[in-house]
Each structure stands twice: as structure tokens, then as C-alpha cells.
Amino acid sequence: MPNIRDLHTHYNTLRDQAIALRRSGLSLRQIRDRLGIHNNDLLQRLVKGEPPPEWTKRPNAKDDLRAKARELRLQGRTYDQIQLELGVSKSSISLWVRDLPTPERKRSREESAAIARRGWEAKLRIREEERQQAKLEAARSVGALSPRELFLVGVGLYWSEGSKDKPYDRREKVVFVNSDPGMIQVYLAFLDLLGIERERIRFTVMIHESADIPAAERYWADLVGADRSAFYKTTIKKHSPRTRRKNIGPTYRGCLTVKVLGSADLYRRIEGSWWGIVDAVAEADHENRT
To answer: What percent of the chain has pLDDT over 90?
Structure first.
């Protein structure tokens, strides 16, 4: 059984051989095969401190940023300042410059916090731009709607936001409520497609008592293009002073109820159409599974 001295001598011999091979330009794989060492930890220890040959270094898309980060660090820049200028993460900066000396603090904590805040605000602006760009691209991809597509969208909208008949509470009437102006406009276009005359449609504004009620009434009347005679009396929602609502401010205009008079037959058509959509989806799903 070899003693400690023999093992130490053998290790030193291997290290000398590994270093010589490393300096001659061999990669770790070549050294491993040449010396017959298949323990990665041991191999790393044998060549520790010896830089890899240039030919083994793979090109990196961030090499220019890394070089610039190191240059800025040597100029005494902080991580926050480098991040603000290069737009890279602090973790990457730390990895690139951790062997360089830490610069002396030249800014107060308040100034550093302000720099970090500006960097974060810049990042938030980029995220918001990306978010809006994704929405714009999705909007452009829709294109023109065919009458059939508008019909299917309208049926889905109503079944999501409209009143529904129950076996225990017969309500075969078409009443739609929503606070989204776009939803209201699409729904009215759906009613136009079905040939529902605007004279059969009545509106009701539903809004909290603390809001600007006259402004909301004017807004909805302008949106739907209807005279005030088509509006029922506004429904005022009362609430406790302790209630903390988030739907406040000048953009809060409550909800609009859209009711079609004499609409029992229309309701049955909408409900039946919804059944047809569900059946069609079930049939398509069955065909996809078989």
C-alpha cells in the first residue's frame, strides 16, 4: 500500500506534466487523454493557475460588453453606473469584474440610490415598450372581421357578460352590462348585425356616488351615439366611507347596461347559438383525439 509521501510525489509529478502540457497549448480534454486522468476535479487542480490556450476560448456575443465593463470598472465606476451605461445585469457585471479592485466610494448613498432608480426606471420603460409592441402586433394580426366572425364573437361576449335564463328563474331577456367601452362597441355592432333597431335599445349608467356622474352620462351617450331619451335613470351605487376602491379618478365612468326591449326570441337565438358553439368545439376535440 503506497504511503503518503509516495502519493504526494505522484501528485507533484502529474501536476508538472499537466502544467507542461497546458503551456504547450493543449486543452483539458487533450491533457486528460494524454495522462489518463478521468477525474475532472483532479484535472482542474492539476492545472490550477494556468490560463487556457487562446484557441480553446469560444467567441462570446458579450465579449465587447465584458471588455467595456472592465474598462469602466478600472475607471472607478460602480456596478450601478456600469449597469446604467451598458444595460446588462449586475450578476454579469460581477462575474466580469470580480478580479478587479473595488473602487473607492465617490458618491453618497443618496446619489447611488438615484442612479439605481434611474436604471430601474429605464428598464421599466423598455418593458413597457415591449408590452405595447406585443399588443400592437396582435391587434394588427386580427385584420377585418367577417359577419360570421363578428356573430361568433358577439355570442361569446353575451354569454360571458349578459343575463341568462335559469330553470328556477325565467329571464328570457337580453341585458348586457360592462364597463369596457370596447366591449360595449363590439356588442352594439353584434346587435346591428342581427338587425336590432336602435329604437329597441335602452341604456342605464351604473356608477358609484362619489364619481362625476354627469360626465359619465355624457361619455356613455357620446360613445353609443344615443339621445338622452334612450337612457333610463342612472343607478347610483352607495358605499361605506371605509371602502377602498381602486376604480376611481377621471377614467372611472361606471358600467353601462344595454337592454333590448321585447327580446325573448333574441335571447333564445343567442342561447341556442352558444349551444352550437359548444357542440362544435366538442366535435372538433373528438375528431382531434381519434
So the answer is: 37
> Tens digit of pLDDT for each residue in 133-162?
998 898 899 889 999 999 999 999 999 999
Residues ≥6 apart with Cβ < 8 Å to 183: 157, 161
**In angstroms, rounded to a whole number, what is the distance separating the alpha carbons of residues 21 and 33?**
11
First-last CA distance in the chain:
69
Q: How large is the angle between the packed helices 147-161 and 181-193, nearest 10 degrees?
A: 120
- Identity at 25, one-letter amino acid code: G
**Whole-model pTM?**
0.57
Provide the phi-psi class of 88: left if phi over 0, else alpha when psi is between -120 and 50, else beta. Answer: beta
Contact 70, 96 (CB under 8 A): yes
Q: Which cell goes with 36?
A: 489518463
In angstroms, the CA 17 to CA 39 distance is 16
Three-state DSSP at 256 gives strand
Grid coordinates representing 72?
A: 469602466
- CB burial of 178-212 (b: ≥16 within 10 Å; e: otherwise) equals beeeebbebbbebbeeeebeeeebbbbbebbeebe
User: Which cell numbers hold the place of 16?
Assistant: 508538472
* Closest of 1, 68, 2, 56 to residue 24, by C-alpha: 56
Instruction: Return the DSSP state at 173.
Output: S
Report residue 105 as a C-alpha cell: 466610494
